[in-house]
Amino acid sequence: MPILTHAEALVEAIRECMDEDDNVALIWGSLMGVGGNNHHVQQIQTNFADRIFHPPISEAAMAAVATGAAMDGVRTIFPMGTASFMFRAWDQIIHEAGAAHYMSNGTVSVPVVFHVVHGLRGGGSAQHSQSPQSMLWNSPGIEIAMPSCPADAKGLMRTAIKSNNPTVFIDHQKLNKRTGEVPIGPHDIPFGVADVKREGADVTIVGASLQVVHALAAAKDLAADGIEAEVVDIRSLVPLDEDEILKSVAKTGRLLVIDEAPPHCSVASEIISMVAKKGLDLLKVPPVGLNRLPVHVPANVALEDFIGPNVNRIVEAGKQLCN
Question: What is the rounded radius of gyration, in angstroms, for the C-alpha atoms of the chain?
Fold first, then answer.
């Protein structure tokens, strides 16, 4: 299999789907975080110029156009850039795209993909570093995908584009240049199927997006101390593969959930709650959530790294769980 960057794999998925289906369109011709030098972006701009629309720069307006086009049957992709920008379009995403199928008694589908880049990006500061996954999780009707590697980025994006439901595809700026093997041609990964990225018997580490990369690095450090961590990549938040998480906890008896959003009402706290409700007897010790600290994100990169769920914090939490 060829080696691609995360960004290349993502754009390859979009290019393939636009080639396979004349009904796939892009709102705005810039895939934020990918970069104009990517040859797939240039190919999309050349081959599908009639299916790329360039509204004025207004997230609310562009989300409305994307949602309306999807309601009319066009499979629409809207790369919004930084996830913080989506708050400008919250009403269109939550109340229009997310609610249309329910409010129309199932007669209206909204096959739209909102692609955003979340998290601690390196100097993003308070207004460009949001991780809105837990907020979106509290909004019914929206699928949420969070890939951690190039192959998953391609497979999940193809599934998102083909879905008849609105999908928020949450990427991370720091994943874009990471490389990995990516299958050639059609490669679809269904939502709701987690992936065990590393097997282990001592502690289960659950995460998504960049935190899976951190978890795998931490697992190597833990192994040097005789602790074998199992890393479960949830890949999609909605739907969530609860069975795979519970299966792993049944094996290890210990749970650590990593989430780049702040701790209150977070993905980490909800997964821990789910395990406590459905698998309390599986746990040997109380589970632990590891989140971004509940403070504004500083512009200073060293301080930014300190507040996030970095490798050192994961290693320390893993040792405490196992000792």
Answer: 19
